[in-house]
Amino acid sequence: MDPILVSLLAGTAFAVAAYAVWRLVAELGGAETVYRDRPPKGFRYLWPAVNIFANTFGFLLRGEREAALLAKLRKAGQEYALTPQQFFGGKIVGLLVGAVAGMALAGDGTLLLGGVLGGLFGYAYPSIWLSDHTKKRNLAILKAMPFFLDIVTLSIESGLNLTGALQKAVDKCKPGPLMVEINRVLRDVRAGKPRLEALRDLADRMSYAPISSLVSALVQGELMGSSLGPILRAQSDQRRTERFQRAEKLAMEAPVKMLGPLIMFIFPCTFAVIGFPIAIKFMASGL
Question: Which ranges carry the Type II secretion system protein GspF domain (predicted)?
């Protein structure tokens, strides 16, 4: 076959493929970002591919699966950064990237195994990251709650109502996930939502025991007409107690966690150092 014809056909095929990819990215690779937060770093690097797979395979998320994934994104504070479809698209992108990386790192006879293991890890990694991010966020909220509740208590005892006390606490506390959630409650209240309903939405959105306990106490105090100062002070003391208990638990778990490295790595090296001279002496004496 004429080399010139082959080159023309190859160039035409490449141009058509490039145009198809460009159209695919233009049609499906974008997403509405006017009211959305910035996506996480890993998703941001592969954003066009994430949106392409989200728009292509998003129909697989329907009903309970979509609602469950949306609840997880809310708990992690990623509700306005990722939709459930985009998160699912990120899992598919992770599967493909993990499969390619696994095949690249595998040997000649284990390409298929490497691709399968890498693909499974890539598919599961976004869920692992979301779970770890939720735990870190909840820990940051637990650490910030005592000081936040102290400010709210002082503000209420000084004569402010609950909404004004929450706003004062937001102004005085350091930025963090707790301040983001309280700011959202204040925006809901300013938009016309009843305060008790906004607080209940906060508890449902976060699904975190300390926040649920605080909201329950505030709602009960509001409904009963009792003073909120003692209630908030008791909540602050309870949060501090939980922090100390968590620190004590981690301190007691440390020796148990050290047993594995000690038995697997440190003890064998110690026995080797001690036993080698003894073994040499036995061998030299003919035993």
Answer: 148-274
